[in-house]
Amino acid sequence: MRSRLLAAVVAWGVLVAAAVRAEPAPTEVRVLDWQGRRVEGASLQASLSRTLPEELGAVAGPDRDALRFLLIGPPDSSLEALEVLTSNAQGRPLDVIVSFHAEPVTCPDGVAPEQVCRQTPALRLVSDALERNHPALKARSLRAEVGGTLRVGLAGRRLLEMAVAGPRRAQGSPLGRLRARLRVLVLRARAGGAPAVGGTDVGARRLMAQELASTAALWGQCGVELGPAEKASIELVDPPKTQLLTVGCGLGQPATGGTVRLQTGRKTLALETHVGESPVSVALRLAQALAAGGKAPAVFENQRAGGDALASADVLLDGSRRWQRSDAGPLSSDASLPVCLGEVDLSDGVTHFGDDDAFVGTLEERTLLRSFDDGDPRSIEVLVVPELDGGQRIGESFIVSPGSSLSNTVLIDRSAIEAGARSFALAHELGHVLLAMPGHPDDFGVDQSWSLMDADVADGSIFGPRRLSLADCERMVTQTGPASLTPLLESVPTR
Can you state the percent helix, strand and coil of the chain, rounding each to 5? Predict the structure, then answer.
């Protein structure tokens, strides 16, 4: 009995020794960038690919985000097949390549002569299944997301793990992990009616959660995340009852004297204007008159529209009363100081801005956006409406600019959501806000059909408008990053 037990122990020891010899751990794993330089220290993180790969005829330069892995071990090492896998920001497995082959290469200087080296192809981290599953890229692509991790293993043993964050800049330092806070409002066409998208409340929330996920996936190229999907701020709201009284609308001249008249029910309000008085001065006095001893309505000075001598001013009426022009005449009898009364009517589409009023917005847009503004300059409002007037646009955005009273807001309609990956309308309009960029790279230059910020491309393929350049990412950090004058992004630990 004792001899049989001893024989079994010896046999078991031989099997274990054989297994150890067959699958030894490499003595060293090095991470290499696109130029073959070692990535280590604070720069040791992975990032999403931002360019088309060479297999598809890339013209935008090399893939600077791809990583190779150099394995160094004894001659009898079985280093041919690695396992590479990604996890999401919550630590759940996201994607895997179970056999990522490494080929023999010449060892770099300093490696002991008895060691051998093998190197993998350039591994690309991508944001969605479309690029992950392309036949030409599948063998070396993995889905990943900002805040998650990339892990490299061999024979079930973990060799290396690194965070997925923003790209490495030219000098080698990474952009890190940033978070934007979005507040999504899906409007109903009328009070109590169906939401602008999704058909039902549940459908609207589900559809917008998917839209936010695809938007976050694209902006992950710059290290930006929108937070956990289950914590997304998505509200369904009725059209606002508020009204907006604009002093100096469409003209922007000093007052020459006259009367502003408003009526609600049997009550009439009359305010005399003074020669040389500015629109904002009249608006402030009008707000005090409307208060009638109570709380005065908010007054906003608008950015000056094209052709205006002076900026107009808005008085936001809370909707508790319905104001209209008086039976005695127009809203304003002042020849140089017109007054407009605006409200939101979603049944005929939201009237959108043109070139002259792009920074100030239309009267209906300002009425809509001011009604839902939460007063927090660090949050970005996304309003989803049934349609924009005219059918020529599917999205608009208001960005931070000197003198602007409307900013950090995206306005998109139902067709923008329906377009999906053909145009990535929400991600595109969010780009205007994060980059603080009113125009497009192709407005006065060469068309960039691959760029997310291209003006007019609709292409749902891998060649479509889905990519952000390193220059885009660096501009974003400068304009709205944590250290900017108007920070819309906050830094988040990569681990």
Answer: 25, 30, 50
